[in-house]
Write a structure and sequence with these properties.
The radius of gyration is 20 Å and the shape is globular. It has 2 domains: 122 residues, 3-Layer(aba) Sandwich (Rossmann fold); 163 residues, Dihydrodipicolinate Reductase, domain 2. The chain has 344 residues and is an alpha/beta fold. Helix content is 29%, strand content 21%. The two termini are 34 Å apart. The longest helix has 16 residues. Helix 7 runs parallel beside helix 9.
């Protein structure tokens, strides 16, 4: 399949290129960057030297990109993928957006949280969290790749919500991310002296991934859901650890919780269940498409606490996009993604 990457110079775009260069069923034909047009990608990312030395193009003319491509991956900030979607609307090209533009079934929710007018409201799209929406992804024209915090959080909570084991309006998600989640553009808060040896919360009570998690929990449980979501920034480059709390419904036992996770995920290659009382760690999934999950039952408070760890740039972005690409093409989901995590 011929594929193009729009916005290849961000962290997610570069990670996607790293994966696709080794994918046996993908040929990368165009990569774009408006700020580095005409430069070689390996000059910006030396780790790609000799593996991918393609020249970056502009996306201003989408016609040749659409003509040459079977799939287009969009790795741009929110508000920009809609232009690509509209430009390719009447072509056979399929789109995987790693941003937020196509994640919401209700575009009014997108507009409320992202403060951008949605200009492609009628687009045929599905939510691209592979383990939960696999059948929809197979035939979708546009796939709205799930966000990084949301992937870790939704996968942690999905069995509990689907099997009605928890009160979905008692959910609290406390999540920590490495700084690569903030993108490559320099900011004072990500400057090494500001970030190193520090740990802080941000966007408390209004982070944009909140409604994305709520949308999935409502879809799984059939119940209206409001959650508390608090993200934190950790002085490491990669990784997300999500700690998710919820009150168990009456008469729910630990064995029922165990069974729900086993039933939902026992055949999912990229989800590794550490079981009750396990402790996932970001280092154990670094550089991989795995999501490690464990859970604990607090009998004193009647709550379940679920822990999940992912690499935010792989399972939380580029790896999940390739997993969706594999599903959409009928390939083995592991194709190009069967990397063992890096350690230490």
């Amino acid at each position: 399949m011929k594929v193009s990457i729009i916005g290849a110079t961000g962290y997610a775009g570069a990670e996607l290129l790293r994966i696709l260069c080794r994918h046996p069923e993908a040929e990368v034909v165009h990569i774009t960057s408006e700020s580095h047009t005409g430069e070689k990608i390996s000059g910006l990312y030396p780790h790609l030297r000799g593996c991918c030395d393609m020249e970056l193009e502009s996306m201003k003319d989408m016609e040749p990109i659409g003509r040459d491509s079977d799939f287009v991956f969009v790795c741009l900030p929110h508000g920009h993928a809609m232009d690509v979607g509209r430009a390719l609307e009447n072509t056979p090209v399929r789109v995987i957006d790693l941003g937020a533009d196509y994640r919401f079934a209700d575009t009014a929710v997108y507009e409320e949280w992202y403060h951008v007018a949605h200009t492609h409201k009628g687009a045929e799209r599905v939510y691209g969290l592979a383990e939960l929406y696999r059948e929809e992804v197979r035939t979708a024209k546009i796939i709205g790749n799930a966000g990084c915090f949301t992937t870790a959080s939704i996968l942690a909570l999905a069995p509990l919500a689907k099997h009605h084991l928890i009160d979905v309006n008692t959910i609290i998600v406390d999540a920590k991310s490495g700084v690569s989640g903030a993108g490559r553009s320099p900011k004072q808060g990500n400057h090494f002296p500001e970030l190193y040896d520090s740990f802080k919360a941000y966007n408390v009570a209004h982070h944009r991934h909140t409604p994305e998690i709520e949308q999935a929990i409502e879809d799984l449980s059939g119940e209206k859901t409001i959650i508390n979501f608090t993200p934190h920034l950790v002085p490491m480059s990669r990784g997300i650890l999500a700690t998710c709390y919820a009150s168990l419904n009456p008469d729910i036992t630990a064995d029922m919780v165990d069974a729900a996770f086993e039933k939902m995920y026992s055949n999912e290659y990229f989800i590794r269940l550490l079981g009750r009382n396990g402790y996932p760690a970001t280092k154990d999934v670094r550089g991989s498409n795995f999501c490690d999950i464990a859970w604990h039952i607090d009998e004193r408070t009647g709550r379940v606490i679920v822990l999940s760890a992912i690499d935010n740039l792989v399972k939380g972005a580029a790896g999940q996009a390739v997993q969706n690409f594999n599903i959409a093409n009928g390939f083995d989901e592991k194709l190009g993604l069967d990397e063992i995590p890096m350690y230490p």
